[in-house]
Structures are given as C-alpha cells and as structure tokens.
Amino acid sequence: MVYEKRKEQRLDVTLRVRWEGVLAQQDATIANLSTGGCFVLSGGEVTVNELLRLEIFLSDAEPIRLWAEVVDTADEIGFAVRFTSIEGDAQERLANFVAAALGGK
Predict the structure, then answer these.
(1) The whole model's pTM is what?
(2) The total number of structural domains that make up the chain
(3) What CATH number corresponds to the domain at position 24?
(4) Digitized pLDDT (tens) for each residue of the chain, 105 residues in all
(5) Which residues constitute the domain of residue 61?
(6) How far apart are CA 4 and CA 7, in angstroms?
C-alpha cells in the first residue's frame, strides 16, 4: 500500500533500523518509508522535535546513516520522523530503493 497524503509517496516496508536519541538507543522496525521520512515501530520514548541518528538496513549491505527529526509520536507504537541530513551516498541509495519498490507496484 502506498500513502499519498504526504509530499513523498510512502511505501509499506519491514526494515530493520537502529536509532539513537537523547535518552535511548534501540533496534526497531520501519513500517513505512519515503525519501523524506519514515514511521518507526518502537516502544522507545522520544519527543516531537527531537533529533535522532538512524541506521537503516535496506539490505545485507552497509546501512544508510542519517539524521531525522521526530514529527509525531504514537504512544507505545512508535514515531514518525522527517529526514534532515543524509550522509555520503545514502541519499542516492535511499532514492534508488524507494524508486525500485514503487516501480514494482
């Protein structure tokens, strides 16, 4: 299913992610993803506007590393983030992953 209410299309995924915030660091799962953000399924506590460091595992290759800002939280379910800074070739890898997934639908 593709979500179309945001600027970028989001696609449903099940991807491993490691996130680190001010008070917590956890392994979690990404439930949906776009080139601009994602929803993280996690019981960890974060606050809106908190800056997080994410490592997203798109495959068995090296994870992409980026910074994201929490834009919404859902108690005991997870939180939504907007990507703010993507390191190295991560932007291209993320765009290619999303484009390939959307092209296959």
Answers:
(1) 0.88
(2) 1
(3) 2.40.10.220
(4) 444 445 677 899 999 999 999 888 999 999 999 999 999 999 888 999 999 999 999 987 889 999 999 999 998 899 999 999 997 899 999 999 999 988 855
(5) 2-103
(6) 8
